[in-house]
Write a structure and sequence with these properties.
The protein is 10% helix and 23% strand. With 336 residues, the protein is mostly beta strands. The protein has two domains: 139 residues, Leucine-rich repeat, LRR (right-handed beta-alpha superhelix), CATH 3.80.10; 135 residues, Leucine-rich repeat, LRR (right-handed beta-alpha superhelix). About 5% of the residues have low confidence.
Length: 336
Amino acid sequence: MSHSSTLFLFLIVLFFTPALSELCNPQDKEALLQIKKEFGNPTTLSSWLPTSDCCNNNWVGVSCANKTQSYRVNHLDLNDLNLPKPYPIPPSVGNLPYLNFLSITNTNNLVGTIPPTITKLTMLRELQIRFTNVSGEIPHFLSQIKTLESIIFHYNNFSGNLPPWLPSLPNLYRVSLDGNRISGTIPDSFGSFSDSLKLMTFSDNRLTGEIPATLAKLDFDFVDLSQNMLEGDASVLFGSEKHTLQINLANNSFAFDFGKVRVSKTLLILYLSHNRLYGALPEGLTSLKNLGTFDVSYNELCGKIPRGGRLQKIDVSSYSHNKCLCGSPLPKCKHL
């Protein structure tokens, strides 16, 4: 073979090798490029090029599964998209069938509602929409994605009520809807969440009414209902047999006898300030050796602060503005 023929063959191999060795699935690549187009081709996604491999770790926010799943795109994490004008979530996001993680955050120009095409993501486990202007009610069609384990919708413009269908997601571990405009009451159906649910946070919304008694059987690691307009008895969230780590009920209108509450021995953080709690502090608080943060200020509590545990090491301000709490670290009880 002549030198020129060898050189010609070498150039052919060199030209076609990138295409032959590309890991990115063609359908996934097409979907991603369409997503980029539907976003108005933001410069944030300038690394998404039709001439490069979407599974080479150079496409911003894109990750692919390993070779056992033929390098399909399974992780899409889009942050700080500098969209040239307001755009909704691209419907083409539903054309990534192996996606198990989808996150779009810190994008003010993201508007509109969640597209129904998202139900095509039958392997999706985590859905995050945070710090955007996505609006509307949380759509019922999300109940079709039975693989969902985590829904995190922090600080958007979602409105309407809490979705009563949430407990129909059998694998749900976390639901966080903080910082939206969600109103109405907590549905009775929430008492039927599976044991998998460990984190429930609805802070900084417009929730009203009382906590359903059905929630008494739930064993959360972390519950945050702060900064709402909830009222009545929240003692159903407590229990000595539970494994709760953090409870935040601050800035509501809860009113119940705190002295009758039995607290979880695993409790690390307890915020109850700015409510209408009455009675004394429960003796069980003295057994919480790892209690790090505790605040019952601005309530109607009375009586001597139990001695033991970390209660005497808590800052005085955490006990302030109550009816008649006394004893270390507050001044001595005059009437005792």
